[in-house]
Amino acid sequence: MARNREKKPQRPKALPPKGFRDYFGAEVAQRNDMLNAITSVYHRYGFDALESSGVETVEALGKFLPDVDRPNEGVFAWQDEDDTWMALRYDLTAPLARVYAQNRNDLPTPYRRYATGPVWRNEKPGPGRYRQFYQCDADTVGTASMAADAEICSLLSDTLETVGIPRGDYIVRVNNRKVLNGLLETLGLAGEGATVSSDDILRTVDKYDKVGEEGVRQLLTTGRTDASGAEIDGVGLTLEQANIVLKILLSKGANNVETIANLRDAIAGSDEGGKGVDELEEIANLCAAQGYGEDRIVIDPSVVRGLGYYTGPVYEAELTFEILDEKGRKRQFGSVAGGGRYDDLVKRFTGQAVPATGVSIGVDRLLAALREKGRIDAQSKGPVVVTVMDRDRMGDYQAMVSELRNAGIRAEVYLGNPKNFGNQLKYADKRESPVAVIEGGDEKERGVVQIKDLALGARLSAEIETTEEWKAQPAQMEIKRGDLVDEVRKMIARAEGAV
Amino acid sequence: MARNREKKPQRPKALPPKGFRDYFGAEVAQRNDMLNAITSVYHRYGFDALESSGVETVEALGKFLPDVDRPNEGVFAWQDEDDTWMALRYDLTAPLARVYAQNRNDLPTPYRRYATGPVWRNEKPGPGRYRQFYQCDADTVGTASMAADAEICSLLSDTLETVGIPRGDYIVRVNNRKVLNGLLETLGLAGEGATVSSDDILRTVDKYDKVGEEGVRQLLTTGRTDASGAEIDGVGLTLEQANIVLKILLSKGANNVETIANLRDAIAGSDEGGKGVDELEEIANLCAAQGYGEDRIVIDPSVVRGLGYYTGPVYEAELTFEILDEKGRKRQFGSVAGGGRYDDLVKRFTGQAVPATGVSIGVDRLLAALREKGRIDAQSKGPVVVTVMDRDRMGDYQAMVSELRNAGIRAEVYLGNPKNFGNQLKYADKRESPVAVIEGGDEKERGVVQIKDLALGARLSAEIETTEEWKAQPAQMEIKRGDLVDEVRKMIARAEGAV
């Protein structure tokens, strides 16, 4: 056995690394189309493209990984020949901070930029969780104006509608970190001397969607037993403190005016909290002035956003239509984009605080949503396949293909072994080809070709019931060689109309 | 001093890693437009998109790096948590071989695929040489037919014309590795028992453009003293052998028929060489049948292509117009794409040889060529800038911007500190803004706004000579608030017409 194994030639495994995957055909084209649609909105809003490299120095990336539980992990890193540590970017915001710090004297201020591309996370892969995925971001650097935040919210709204999410099927929800943080400071629960971690409080509040009001109350105080029977430790607030936190969380009223009044009542005299509510009110007014009603952008005090670096307004775009989850239960599709204001990222490089705000769209989740809504033509358009009846006349077939392509019709000649004609039709089938072109020696002599409607051929027995229909829609027809382009175009149009 | 240094806070350097760079605004958009144009041609030819991840296992990538002098180096690699070595892909062909081997039972055969994206090389960076750059490839896997190679050549020709290289400004040159390799084998200069390296011979022949016929003769035999006085070793052929090799290299005739006749004469009875010439003749005939004349695709025995893994036809797209190099000397722009047939890449995984052929376009070089030819609008179109005269009326200004954007006009409100109006116009200038919109309290009361043609304002003193012209083309005008969209659109159109 051992000797046998040694003899075996060692072949590499034909697999991507763990947690990586490939995308084929229509998947790639659909994502590309969606990214083009998104960036066209970003561009119309005055944002300029930036493409930084996939690789950054580890020191430039810093320790701002979204997963705050493991701030030092999560990146793919290695050492350059001169011992500098390099890493693949884990998001598009950290590179923006580096680029802005590097070019701040040449870039306009404020600097509106968009970026799109893959990011990498060195995390444990799971079902649907990959270690490389796309982001598509828009950020405004260099202004503290709430108008920048309001603009990001309207940008998000316009973008979702442009890619095909109808109004009413999404909502952009806005909150402000200062509200809860200010309250916690006033209560002595954050800042110096705090006995509990305000991160823990935020994380607990973020579970509201899952565990509800009473669940959050338990988790904020003494703990809770979850559905599986496991004991989960509480954060350690008193019941009174927990109720004050929950009052913020439950401030959402029937409209923005009511919500803002509730918040003012709930912040318990905190200056910072009051500032946060003022900012929310300003954003609400700016959105209204631009014609974005509360059916599109709404103040919602239950929005948290996990990312540690946000310092002011935070926003989240949620898709509100229902889908069936893997267990067949109805649930809302959920979040497809999020962002907020982060005022300290550039400071790491320059020592000066530079206010900034921005949003990141989860490209793959948004694509999944569009497929769910039937807004993406999931079917790829296969090419016309010119079959090869006579191997020596490849030039004739190539000429046909050229004519079709020059007329803008996607077309290819069969390049496999032409011996078995059935294999050629099977190939055309696999390619989802609408039309096959056939020219044997006999046809060549008579100056004709056969064209075959492959989609119709497949549907014939299922749909066509009378002989008249059959005659009216022949799956295969003989045409003059000179009419190839016109007749193929007609057949494709007929096939598309029939679908 | 030392104590002082210790006190200084350690800030990260705001720089990308050595050999990496950022791309801004129009550069990104232009590349994106060009990639979309290229892939639309690939798609029309029946090629399907494939996007594999940027990361592969080192064992899957193999040792096929183009730089044959250092086959083991040149990649950025690191170990995964389970000790698997991973690396950034160095081209798009090695991942294709892995993907095809992995999915060969599900993919159509032959499999035409295109791919585009960044690749990474761990090489010493230099001026204009970056360690991340774009490639855009088309390959056909699973067919030995020369029709696949001819198709790649016509694809290349169509692609160049589609992106804006006019016919006559480029040439696709085709050769076949079998010709020279076959000859070398017949001469005992390749294969088992050869005393010289056939790679060295290929590399020397590849210098023909630089050193000319006599230079290649010297380098193939005893060596040569270059312009700087340095002695360069010869490969060690006899003069007779060198002349036989040179005869191949110089076989190009007045047309393909003559070239092929010359080659048949030059291969000195080599079977393999004869096969190579047959293949070239077949490609020439297929291209002619498709209407691609020798002004677009031509047989040229001097094409070598450095890559070690080519086994048959090789091709290269060269731009033939002249540019001035950095020293002000005229030279041809040179190669922008290349490829060929490689039959052994998939075999590494499966043990079975899978014939394949394909091409890679050097995206950044082609972009440079288009800029050189003035085929790309190098100027970016800046947004309309709505200035802020009254900080408290941000909602009014945001509403204007919304109207403009909804009408498809790129527009933004000034988000910096509005105190100094001069700074707002400087900002608009930096943004290459065509039009600034101004609405002070007085205008607001009267229901009007001022719009300012910024390009015209900048040109006024230089171009406009009479007062009549000045009056006919005022750089700033007062319009009704309700006419904002129409009047801005007119002003932009006028500005574009005037350029």
Automatic annotation (TrEMBL), chains A, B:
What Gene Ontology terms for biological process does this UniProt record contain?
histidyl-tRNA aminoacylation
Q: Where does L-histidine bind?
A: D91, L92, T93, R121, Q135, D139, R305, Y309, Y310
Catalysed reaction(s) here are:
tRNA(His) + L-histidine + ATP = L-histidyl-tRNA(His) + AMP + diphosphate + H(+)
* GO terms of molecular function: ATP binding; histidine-tRNA ligase activity
Subcellular location, record wording: Cytoplasm
> Might you give the EC number(s) for this enzyme?
6.1.1.21
**Endpoints of the signal sequence:** none
**UniProtKB keywords:** Aminoacyl-tRNA synthetase, ATP-binding, Cytoplasm, Ligase, Nucleotide-binding, Protein biosynthesis
Task: Indicate the segments forming the Aminoacyl-transfer RNA synthetases class-II family profile domain, all copies.
Answer: 19-383
Extract the Gene3D superfamilies matched here: Anticodon-binding domain (3.40.50.800), Bira Bifunctional Protein, Domain 2 (3.30.930.10)
Which terms in the GO cellular component ontology are assigned?
cytoplasm
What class does this enzyme belong to in the EC scheme? ligase
The UniProt entry, under HAMAP family, shows: His_tRNA_synth
Subunit field text? Homodimer.
User: NCBIfam families, alphabetically?
Assistant: hisS
State the family it belongs to: Belongs to the class-II aminoacyl-tRNA synthetase family.
Against PANTHER family, the record matches this protein to: HISTIDINE--TRNA LIGASE, HISTIDYL-TRNA SYNTHETASE
Protein's recorded name:
Histidine--tRNA ligase
Q: Which organism is it from?
A: Paramylibacter kogurei
